[in-house]
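Below is a filled-in request sheet from our internal design queue. Each sheet records the structural input a requester submitted and the sequence that came back. We keep these sheets so that new team members can see what a complete request looks like end to end.

REQUESTER: design group, bay 2
PRIORITY: normal
MODE: inverse folding
CHAIN LENGTH: 204
BACKBONE (tokenized):
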């Protein structure tokens, strides 16, 4: 498995119409969570965020919203942001344009957000122009790596805290497969970012 902890600037430049970070002179960071909501993880993350008085943006999968509508509503009730992460966690590199757009729009009926993040970060490029008429496509410039079974929670903490800059968008996950790692890492990530005088923003 290979991925970038810091998304290279040449990739950000090549796809500059996508949102990789939010330009800012202020020390603000945007925490985001993909793949939920899941009973096993999302509710615990909400408890941590509530205790720390931190807001985040959750990119939700439509099928998971269908399974856990109360949890989806709780995300919004607690003042967090929500975004579309497709209906079935579809891989844009293995899907035709029509099927991809239909999957994203099916999720929109449940999520109702103008933010979209492609699952796996693999955007269906043939769909890009059509999607951008309706959605702001949100990527990230810092990946915690909580999905990487090779990494300890301490390494995930380090990946985030050593690489964020003002305006960074950080991708983490509320996926049950990565439960132990993210629930262990998140409190320390927040603690260290606060100690570095970062505030936490919502994507809009």
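RETURNED SEQUENCE:
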């Amino acid at each position: 498995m290979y991925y970038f902890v810091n998304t290279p600037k040449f990739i950000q430049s090549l796809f500059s119409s996508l949102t990789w970070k939010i330009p800012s002179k202020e020390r603000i960071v945007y925490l985001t969570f993909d793949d939920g909501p899941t009973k096993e993880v999302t509710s615990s993350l909400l408890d941590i965020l509530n205790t720390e008085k931190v807001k985040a943006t959750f990119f939700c999968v439509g099928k998971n919203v269908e399974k856990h509508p109360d949890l989806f509503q709780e995300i919004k009730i607690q003042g967090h942001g929500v975004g579309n992460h497709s209906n079935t966690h579809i891989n844009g590199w293995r899907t035709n344009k029509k099927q991809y757009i239909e999957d994203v729009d099916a999720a929109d009926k449940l999520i109702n957000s103008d933010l979209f993040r492609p699952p796996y970060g693999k955007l269906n490029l043939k769909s890009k122009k059509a999607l951008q008429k309706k959605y702001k496509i949100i990527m990230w410039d810092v990946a915690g790596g909580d999905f990487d079974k090779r990494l300890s929670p301490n390494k995930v903490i380090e990946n985030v805290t050593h690489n964020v800059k003002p305006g960074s968008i950080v991708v983490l996950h509320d996926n049950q497969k990565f439960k132990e790692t993210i629930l262990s890492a998140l409190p320390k990530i927040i603690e260290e970012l606060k100690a570095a005088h970062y505030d936490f923003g919502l994507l809009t």
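SHEET NOTES:
- The chain has a mean pLDDT of 97.
- Residues 147 and 178 are 6 Å apart (CA to CA).
FILED BY: M.R.
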